[in-house]
Amino acid sequence: MSCGNYVAVEEVHTEYGGDAVYTYVTTHRQCRLTGDGGIPEYCNACCEYCPRLGGDDRYRRADALTEYMSAQIADQVHEIIDSASLAMRTMLFQVGDQIASSGYELLRDCYYDAGSRRIRTPSVLGDYAAIVFSPMEKSQAAVLERRIQEELNSFRTEELLPHIYMGARYLTVSSQDFDRLYCTLENSGGVTAALHTRICPKGFAALGAPAMNVLQDLADQVESYLQNFRWSIMEAQRQFEDGVLRSADGTASFGGSYNGPIPCWHQEI
Amino acid sequence: MAIIRENEFNRITAIYQRQAEECVRSVEIFYDSVTDLARRTCYAPLVNFANQIYKFYKEDLSGHLQREFFRWYNSEYSLHALARSIAAGNAAECRAREHMDAMGDCLRQMFRRGPVSISVDTSEPQIQDGDFDSFSAALSDCVYGFRRANEEAMADIRAMADENNAVECIAGFVRTTGVSLADSFQAMIREVEDGLGFFRSGVSRTLNHIPETGRGTDLHLPWGSGIPFL
After folding, report:
1. Distance separating alpha carbons of residues B71 and B78, to the nearest angstrom
2. Which residues of A touch B94 (CB under 8 A)?
3. Is residue A98 pLDDT above 50, yes or no?
């Protein structure tokens, strides 16, 4: 049984025997998915030799985009999203904690704004359709896509940002606190690193590519989201520092020395 | 305060308070010296001048600094106005106002303390040039005390401002307090020099009116005309 993914490729061989030249035309099959070729025409089970499918007897055929492989990819996506969520939640928890302890309402607003902004989750619909062929594969692809989409949808900022309580009456923020916030936000490397984890389904590497693409897309979205968060904090810092500088300059202009009359030495009484 | 950490503000208040206490201590030392001088010389212009300084310190300087403080308090540069301008929220604004009130209390306390006026019988004055020098020296020591207290306070604030530039918002008033005290007391040193001039010219004038023959005379010169009470 052939996978149906092969195409015929003709190859011309020339051989020299004494003064005679012999020309042979051989037809090979080449796998359309993997590009592997060199499979003789007479082999009607080319995929049994396909190096991308080798190893597991159950799934050596090209129509083996089975539930097992879908599950394998979906599980990996789940683990990656889970790991990224944890990293994101940990980082945002630190950010929230720092903002809460700053007591600065402007920063708290930045935080809540960030909570109300959604990270746009990329769509995977249709990605797999391009690389699968049979109705059975398409059905499995649809299931896989739905599972990936669910995983992506679980990556919600409103669930990632813990609620912060600004109970302190004191605004205790200083310029150093902003630096610390940026530093914490820089730790988003853990989130994107998780999202860049390679998807390696056993057997058919090409199937990992669409999942990796959406995770890459998600990593970009996370980076963009955090960049917006950083900008809003920078804007708060600008307002803070402008106000402080203006106030410091204004206060410096106050008072000065006493210019009124001073006691005089009266010789006459 | 609103922009400065609570413990930082407490440090700032402590710095301002320390400056105030050192200034009061300088004034007290000055007044102790001048009181001794007044009791020793019983010289009415000197006693009068010392009491004027006391009144000036309690009323004019106190009034000046309190007016400046309230001008700052009610301005757009006050700490609570700053809290408002940087959108720190109502709670922070109220807290900033409380901190400013605390500074105002500290300022009032500074002028509530201090010496009482000198009361000396000036009917038998005894003064000489060196007493004027002592008066000037007492004033100089006092000015030095004010300046040193202010420089220390400003150095402390600058050190804190390296970590948090919001501290500079308070520096202006701390400086105003120290500089106002030091400059006005510095100016009084010139008044003492003028007093010495009056005294010397009075002495010279009187001596010039004494008949050279040295015959017995009745010296019934009015007070204040420069009689040498030596």
Report:
1. 9
2. 169
3. yes
First-to-final CA distance of chain B: 59
Min Cα–Cα distance to chain A from B133, Å: 14
Could you report the per-residue pLDDT of B142-184, keeping only the tens digit for each?
999 999 999 999 998 888 877 766 677 788 888 889 999 999 9
Q: What is the pLDDT of residues B30-39, one digit of tens each?
A: 989 999 999 9
Residues 6 or more apart from A250 whose CB is under 8 A from it? Answer: B75, B76, B77
For residue A212, the number of C-alpha atoms closer than 13 Å in the C-beta half-sphere is: 12
Residue A198 pLDDT greater than 60, yes or no: yes
Compute the C-alpha angle A107/A155/A98, nearest 5°: 25
C-alpha count within 13 angstroms, C-beta hemisphere, residue B199 = 23
Nearest to B82 among A175, A247, A253 (CB): A247
Residue-by-residue DSSP string for B38-97? HHHH--HHHHHHHHHHHHIIIIIIHHHHHHHHHHHHTSTTSHHHHHHHTT--HHHHHHHH
Of B24, B8, B13, B16, nearest to B146 by C-alpha is: B24
CB of B121 less than 8 A from some CB of A: no
Structural domain boundaries in chain A: 6-59, 67-238
